[in-house]
Amino acid sequence: MRTAGRAAAALAALAPAAVSAAPATGSGLDEAINNAFKPVADGVSWLVFHPVPIGFGASMPFVVLWLLIAALAFTLYFRFVNLRGFAQGFRLIRGDFSRRDDPGEVTHFQALATALSGTVGLGNIAGVAIAIGIGGPGATFWMIVAGLLGMSSKFAECTLGVKYRRINADGTVSGGPMYYLSRGIAEQRPSLAGLGKVLAVVFAICCIGGSLGAGNMFQSNQSFQLMLQVSGGADSWLAGKGWLFGVVMAILVAVVIIGGLKSIARVTGKLVPIMALLYFTCGLYIIVADIGNIGPAFRAIFDGAFTPEAGYGGFIGVLIQGFRRAAFSNEAGVGSAAIAHSASRTNEPASEGLVALWEPFIDTVVICTMTALVIVITGMYQVDGVGDGVQLTSMAYASVLSWFPYLLVVSVLLFAFSTMLAWSYYGEKAACYLFGESRPVALAYKLLFCVFVVIGASANLGVVMDFSDAMILVMSVPNLIGVYLLAPVVRREVEHYLARVRSGEIRNYRRAPAAA
């Protein structure tokens, strides 16, 4: 590990470049809106974060336990598809089994990139640091475990997304939990058709709320606060001009989303690999530069996972921190990604489920683990005064790469932008499900989304954004009820698909090109 003196010196030298998310000064209107939302926000938060006793005097937020139990159940029920389907998923992403005439709007890779753009972001940068700051290095181990289990949840919901999607007359696709909750449950369990429709409506309403808040306002708000801080804070020329920043961001978002999913997929297909590779490369450089400490870092992670200090409640406390961070990071079980994956060009529902396996793997197992390793190797989490969240991650990277805080600013802006693109599509599809699949409905939602970009950057709507963030997690309740009911369909789909791949019935076009 790096010495405390070296880390402290880096902290002292780089403190001005640290990044935080200080809220903007509120106005009377902000306060009025927040007060109006507070009773509703408190109710939703109570449901999502209500502590559930799990023994040994410990408790876990309801939503974390809900997502974790589903991930474990699906891993067992689908016979560890997260492991045995992993290689086939990579071949599909690479395009080995793709046909241009298959129904759908985007390639497997573009669907994956769009879904990843909605999950890879501040959670990978700040959330991991918070987990380590509270639970110690051992939280990293349980974060990885939860990420691996979450791959099974993501597989199931994305398989169902393709299975019950709707191909519209113009060739566009409408899919996701709204459709497999209503159409799938009605088909497989007719007696529960009414329940399926109710679950679909609840999911769609929460999806719209989450897209306008956490997927939009929160992103523009935090991006503006970051720009304000690095440009001089209260003395910056940007001070008081959140609306201007919001207008610029809204225009950039509009240029992409007006073109629909294909336009979004083209942009995210370029942005996501660049963002992930840049962040990963910086982390890998730090690890290689301090390769002698990689062994002690892994020992700290492993020992902390099973023999943590009793100060925080021991083993259970560390486990909860790891699972909580993974659940909030990759959104496995929430159902949002199924909306993007539903548009993939394929005739095989299980094929897109196998592609989706890579989403929690890249988000949690790769990117979150990279962040955790850098924090542990540099020893910055042990230095007093660093802070937590994005500031701790920034300082850990900056202790080796002095210019990293500035790169982090660019990364956060790109992460926020790509997240808004993905969630604009999720919200649009939810709105079209509720109000009808038509161009006027889609256009009205896109315009509304752009207006909320400006509102988010110029207002201090803390309670509103907390409420919308909770709504995203509430999406997991109707979604996972539906996935449980439709799990036999998923199992039949994947076993039939893998059997035909093994027999050669499903052609690998890279190995055996079709005859002219």
TrEMBL record:
One of its GO terms (cellular component) is plasma membrane. InterPro entries: Na/Ala_symport. Pfam families: Na_Ala_symp (PF01235). It comes from the Bacteria. Gene3D superfamilies: Amino acid/polyamine transporter I. It is found in: Cell inner membrane; Cell membrane. Keywords: Cell inner membrane, Cell membrane, Membrane, Signal, Symport, Transmembrane, Transmembrane helix, Transport. Its main location: membrane. One of its GO terms (molecular function) is amino acid:sodium symporter activity. It is a multi-pass membrane protein. The chain crosses the membrane at residues 54-78, 109-133, 139-156, 198-218, 238-259, 271-288, 300-320, 361-383, 403-423, 443-464, 470-490. Residues 1-21 form the signal peptide. Belongs to the alanine or glycine:cation symporter (AGCS) (TC 2.A.25) family. This is Alanine:cation symporter family protein. It comes from Luteimonas salinisoli.
